Amino acid sequence: MAASSSFFAAPIPNAYHSSSALQRPQLCLFSKRFSSVTISASSKGDEVSASIGFLGLGIMGTPMATNLLKAGCDVTVWNRTKSKCDPLISLGAKYKSTPEEVAASCDVTFAMLADPESAFEVAAGPQGAAKGMSAVKGYVDVSTVDAPTSKQIGERIKETGAMFLEAPVSGSKKPAEDGTLIFLTAGDQPLYEKVSPLLDIMGKSRFYLGDVGNGAAMKLVVNMIMGSMMASFSEGLLLCEKAGLDPSDLVKVVSQGAISAPMFSMKGPAMIQSLYPTAFPLKHQQKDLRLALELAESVSQPTPIAAAANELYKVAKSNGLSDQDFSAVIEALRSKLGHQTE
Ligand SMILES: NC(=O)C1=CN([C@@H]2O[C@H](COP(=O)(O)OP(=O)(O)OC[C@H]3O[C@@H](n4cnc5c(N)ncnc54)[C@H](OP(=O)(O)O)[C@@H]3O)[C@@H](O)[C@H]2O)C=CC1
Ligand SMILES: O=CCCC(=O)O
């Protein structure tokens, strides 16, 4: 093999890898050994371009697939609501009408679905990707799901002889657009090695965490912390107002101290104006808190703060805020819950 063989068999010296724009692959190239359905020879000898499937074109899937296309990858897309495929098709993506057909026509298929139910259905349902998988193919689920669901998806994929990687992401709409996501991967290490150049197109760093379930669990822990932080920040903004302080000053003060977080600086000014342009839908944050609490229950870890935050997001959902950004959780304190506790 030429240069690509080291890519295929590259060892993983550390669990953590980061990439800069300069280090990123300029072309979407894979080893021939990865694919039995290789498409076109490239100018780099033995390397050939691989075909990549992308299932789920929501807030995250659309920019991620777009970045693969812009990097020169051969991308085939599917989404339940077909119209969301149109912008990708206009950029050069191919389209198939079922996940099964996408998986059958691609070397590696990514999935970015809403929740455990949709991730399982798209992977293993009647027209799911598993039906189109076979040995030498790979399936990479980048959705945020619980570890048991990820393991079930992995089992269905691996029954076909294909490889499976879970790779949920930290980072929201803007990092997805900028190609600066953080991948939390686990599962088949050879597949991790093969898709690393693709992860580096879509992200700025990647962690390989071992067995399937570890990536899902890490993602839920991160989002559990995030959901609690946002709930606490919301209380702080409203307490400022009630105490006669300017909440804009709170945003500035927090930004300069030990509890500074990009999330507070980016979302605080809009929250003060009651504006919640959706980057991370509130319904998904509540889903992640629910799944994190299930994880905590399964290992008997007390998580009272996350449990309280979860209740707040549930109130926000019942107030019709599911599709707003998760920062709209502040409205649960402004309205219903606030009145209940007065
Ligand atoms: N937004 C964010 O900041 C981040 C989100 N995530 C996670 O990534 C995943 C996707 O998030 P995001 O893109 O924001 O979510 P969206 O709600 O924007 O997109 C959800 C996607 O799932 C599809 N879908 C939902 N239900 C079904 C179903 N029953 N069958 C088939 N497809 C279905 C939707 O299809 P359709 O278009 O037809 O509705 C859409 O493609 C979630 O797991 C989320 O928790 C992770 C990191 C950041
Ligand atoms: O799952 C969503 C994560 C959002 C973020 O990391 O900013």
Textual characterization of the structure:
By secondary structure, the chain is of the alpha/beta class. The chain has 2 domains: 47-211, NAD(P)-binding Rossmann-like Domain (Rossmann fold, 3-Layer(aba) Sandwich), CATH 3.40.50; 217-332, N-(1-d-carboxylethyl)-l-norvaline Dehydrogenase, domain 2 (Orthogonal Bundle). Helix content is 47%, strand content 12%. Strands 1, 2, 3, 4, 5, 6, 7, 8, 9 and 10 form a 10-stranded mixed beta sheet that branches. The longest helix has 29 residues, at 214-242. It starts with a helix and ends with a helix. The structure holds NADPH dihydro-nicotinamide-adenine-dinucleotide phosphate (NDP) and 4-oxobutanoic acid. Residues 51-210 form the 6-phosphogluconate dehydrogenase NADP-binding domain. Residues 213-332 form the 3-hydroxyisobutyrate dehydrogenase-like NAD-binding domain. GO terms for molecular function: glyoxylate reductase (NADPH) activity; NAD binding; NADP binding. This is Glyoxylate/succinic semialdehyde reductase 2, chloroplastic.
Instruction: Enumerate how many helices there are, as a single number.
Output: 15
Radius of gyration: 21 Å
Strand content: 5-15%
How far apart are the termini? Answer: 72 Å
Brief account:
47% of the residues lie in helices and 12% in strands.
Element layout with pairings:
Elements: H1 3-9, E1 16-18, E2 51-55, H2 61-70, E3 74-78, H3 86-90, E4 94-95, H4 99-105, E5 108-111, H5 116-124, E6 138-141, H6 147-158, E7 163-166, E8 169-170, H7 173-178, E9 181-187, H8 189-202, E10 203-208, H9 214-242, H10 247-255, H11 262-272, H12 282-298, H13 304-318, H14 330-334, H15 336-341
Helix pairs in contact: 5-6, 9-10, 9-11, 9-12, 9-13, 10-11, 12-13
The chain binds NADPH dihydro-nicotinamide-adenine-dinucleotide phosphate and 4-oxobutanoic acid.
